Amino acid sequence: MKEEEHLIEKEPVLKEAFASSLADTAAIAPAREERLFLLLSIFIGVISGLLVVSFRMAIDWLQVLLLGSAPGPRQPRLFIVPAVIGLVVAVLTRYVFPQVRGSGVNQTKAALYINNGYISFRTVIGKFVLSALAIGSGHSLGPEDPSLQIGAGVASLISRRMGMSRERLRLFAPIGAAAGLAAAFNAPISAILFVIEEVIGQWNAAVLGSIVLSAVSSVVVARSFWGSEPMFRIPTVTFSSRELFAYTVLGVFGGVAALIFSKALGYLRPRLRRQSAWKQMLQPGLAGLLVGGIGYFGLPQVMGAGYEVIDQAMHAQFAWKMLLLLALFKIIATTLSFSSGTPGGMFAPTLFIGAMLGAAIGAFEKLYFPHLHLTGSLASYALVGMGVLFAAFLRAPLTSVFMVLEVSGNYSIIVPVILANTIAYVISRSLQPVPIFEMLTHQDGLYLPSMEEQREESELHIEDAMQPVAVPILQGSETIADAAKSMAQYSGMEGSSAVLVDCGEGLWYAATHEELEAIFAKAEEDPAASLAMKLGTERTPILFPDLPLSSTLPHFKRWPLLPITNRAMRGALEGTVSMADVLRRYQGR
Amino acid sequence: MSRTEVSLAKRRLFLRDSLTFLLLTLVTGVLFLITLFLFRSFTSHRAELAVRWSGRGKAALDAGKPGEAMVALRTALSYAPGTRSYELLLAQALADSGHTDEASNYFMNLWVAQPGDGFINLELARLSAKRNDPANAIKYYRASVYGTWEGDGVVRRREVRLELARYLIEHKYMSAARIELLIAAGNSPSDPGLNATLADLLVQTGDIADGFSYYKKALEADPKKKEALEGAGRAAYALGNFAEAHSLLERAMESKASPEKEENAPGDLSAMLDNSRRILELRPSGKLRPVERVDRILADGAIAKKRFDGCVVKFNAASGLPPSLQQLKTRWAGSDGVMGRAVLLRSLAQQDAAVQLIFDTETEASRFCGAPTGDDALLLLLAKSPEAAER
Questions:
Q1: Which of A181, A589, B27, B122 is the most interior residue, by most CB within 10 Å?
Q2: How many angstroms separate the CA of residue B210 from the nearest CA in chain A?
Q3: Which of residues 79-108 of B touch A (CB under 8 A)?
């Protein structure tokens, strides 16, 4: 199997008749897709919400069924179950659902950028069943990323059934992804931001409304089942400015922990992926055995998604040493489970590690530095810890802040969250320049757009290539004879690329010397006619210095030079740009 | 395409889209119903598991197995997060199993949400006491006393106040403990057991008089209460109320000596009884008939004189007697020391002067010649509370 095969779905080729029917539909009802778009977003949200609720139930049910209602150390099934289920999952992944390996975020991105948003129904089923089996059996993985892919798959399925065009099909993937993630997190804003930060990479007004609609619909559905309480039961969170130091320390530790986690994945995953096919089949089983071993020998908390353990940590049920141990072994367990190719996500483990680290630091500071009078409860440290790891490991800083606010329902924690997240993000970025999702796609042999790079790309603007006006300027209101006389005054500018003609009302015309000479030559034919009349009705586009430099490119086929005008004073020239100026700027000269 | 064809195609498209949406709605509805059915089954199963595990946890806690209780209650909470009764049980299990730090953390967390909860404050007080942090322990005990309690608030507050008093006594904050006990006593019903407890604690704070009165209250309701009899006897003895002490101690001894009682009366109780009996024989009470009183003064005078002579001998001629003893010697030689029966019978003032000389002699002799024994010791007791001798 090629490295990238599990990420890319083969989009079915449209039958000729269907393709022509799509074209006919577009011709008959050009506004149809626009109108259906929002309505379908709601349906996608509702169905994704229902599937995600079922998915979470399936995981919980399987966990009780496979590991018992109270998994504890020294229970032999902790060893056996993850290993056996790991083998079953590996066989099914290889022969039945080849596209379900991994978390689901990169698969959704791959579908969006490579395959017009196509995710097959089989993949949706496979992701649902195999992820539920893996997480339910104790593999250290989470349900959020699979939920994201399930949502995107639902969107893909529905939009295809509705006979939407290719352009629209591509837009539906992020809509479904947001719906799936929102239902899994019970946090619509975080889901929307994550999809924008990590999947589509930009604020796209065309799709934003639909993303919001689908995310809200799915959360409404999820809340009708789980209730409107936030994902975690957060005790009262208080904050005083003297705690900022404590949160700074947490930010530093979070950045380092994120680095260790991503280095571990970066080391182990490619090595396991390089193994032969039959060895790869054994990997989920072996990972299950090792993760089960961690549980068997004393830390069953690291098995599965671990939400109830996060809840326990928030409610101060562990001492700081235990919390640190849990964070450390969760990194090991998740690295094993994820690197083995077992389907499941990394969001929940990331939150788990962050919560344990945060609570450990909070408990340590309270225990050993009581004179600091840190007022915040352990829950606030655990919460900030979750945000810290999310920002540093998944590299979604904006989402991390809103996620903490949404899951806590408390705004007063925003200052420490921003502080700690920023520190952790900066540390992680400087020590690990390649974000985790990008690293994983590179390991799989794909080069999808890096959202972090896209966010930080500085776009060139017209003002970056704009030159002072160094060409003759004529008044369009002059007669041809007067214009010719005026032109004669610019005797030193014969070599200029064009002549700008002020056509009044803020409009300009960029004429070539040849064009002007032809007009001047025919001056006697109509002596009263103005130069503007002779130039016809076409005018140069109105461009301003702050527009993207790329926006000038389509106009050079027609115009030798483009006048750039002031936004405040209509028609007032700021400068000019030519094709050569633009190319020079792009080439960095 | 002609206009008619376009119109027809548009209608067909509209119909197709409508049918697709209808189908989508139906699919959504069916999916919703299936999910709802599964969800109900799922939640009821989780609720059952929560009840089952919390039951196991409670049973383990009652059986003194806090370790097992901890695991069971954590499991119960994972199926029913936020259930307060489970949380409190878990916190208790953590505390009982010696996980003091975890228990403190857990209770602190519960406290942040409910700082006025009596039970949480009480547990925090106990944990602070365990960690030898009296300031916090007292703070949380007080918060518990004034906190909210479910159901039996009055009783629980009183119990916490008594626990606080015990803690204060243990840390030698006697006056604070006495105040807490008096407040608790003021709000208490007339329960013999409770009055006996209050009396015990009051005596421990040094407030023997109040302690004695609560022993008496306890005995009013239950005259045969042996702890109250014993305590009251001791208190009366300490107060110098030897007649009452003798009667109470005698009753206490009787109750202890009854055949069904396995334990024997403690030696000091028996000695106290003997002493009080002897004191009653020695005390020169003004309420006695003159002849009887004079007889006792003569007997006591002989004991005191012997003690004085024995004491004076210890001082050699070179060093001389201390001034107070010298003064006593003068008094023994003077009119106060004249202890003839006839003289004493004639004058009540002479009797009182003789009694005072006896008491002063025992007091000074104990200062200079060591602790007395036997009758001298009993006379010294009488000297220390002369008004009691009159009772």
A1: A181
A2: 42
A3: 79, 81-82, 87, 90, 94, 99, 101-102, 105-106, 108
